[in-house]
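Notes from hallway chat w/ T.B., transcribed later so I don't forget. T.B. wanted the structure written out for a chain they're using in a teaching module, and asked if we could keep both sequence and C-alpha cells in one place. Agreed to drop them here.
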Amino acid sequence: MTAVVLDPSVIDWRSTWDVRGDPGVSVSVLLDRLAHSPDATVWHELENRLVVEGECCCSAGFAALPELARLAQSGTDEHRDRALDLAAVIVRTLHRYDEHDDLVRANPAALAVLHRLAQARLPGCAGPELVGRLQDSLALAGYTFWASISLDFTDEHYHLRCPHCATRLAIVIGDYGHYSAIRDHDDGDIHRVSLHPASPGGLTGIGGWAHSIATAGGDTTLADGLTYLFGRATCSMCGSTFDLADWLEAENSPSQPIDPIVPRTDRST
C-alpha cells in the first residue's frame, strides 16, 4: 500500500496537554523518538501520558493521531500494532468526550489511514483478539458507539428504553437466552419476550460487515450474537417491536458524530 503523506507539523504542541496536565511538547518528543528508534519503554511512557483507565481525555492525545498514523505505516508489525491500538483507544473516547473534535477533523487522512491498516490486520484473527481488533476497526471508521460496547455474546446485557412507551428494558443475548425483559430487583428478568434475529443474508451496512468478519474468523458465537443485536426486539410492556441496533445506537449517540471523517460509503467495506 502506498504511504499517505501526513503532516503533523502544523500542530502547536505548546497549546495541548497530556493526562498529567503537562504541555503536549513532551508527547511530541516521544513520538519523534519512536519515529527514529522504536522502543517499548518509550511506547509505555507515551501511553501513560495519553491514556488513563482506558480513556483519552487530553488534547495531546487527539493531536497525536497523524503521527500515530505515520508510525503505523512505517514501522514493524509490532510498531504498527501499538500505534493502531493506541489510536483506537483515543478515537473510541470521542463517543463520550468531544471537546477536541476539531483536532481530529483537522486531518481526516490520518483516520482514513489508521482505519485501512486496522482493517488489514483482521484476517487470521480469532477469539478475543478478533473481537478487540474488530472494535478497533469500528472506532477508526467512526463507529465509536459500537467500538465501545461489549460484544461478549456468551452473556451480554444491554439496557434501553422502549421507543414507544419508554419502559426500561433489559436486552439479553447469550447462553442464558435471547430476549427482552423488565429487570426486577427481586425476581430478576420478568416478562421475557424472545428477540427476533436478522437473517445473516439480510444484514447490511455495519451489521453485515461485522457479521462477515466474524464468519471469516470462524467465531460462530460472535456471528450468531450479531444477528440478534441487529435484529428486532419486542417491548415487554406495550408489545411494540423495533430495530434493536438502531434504537440502541440512537439512545447513545455522541453529541458530535464524527461521520465526516470517514464517509459512510467507506465505513463498512
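Follow-up for T.B.: The radius of gyration is 20 Å. Might be a good example for the class.
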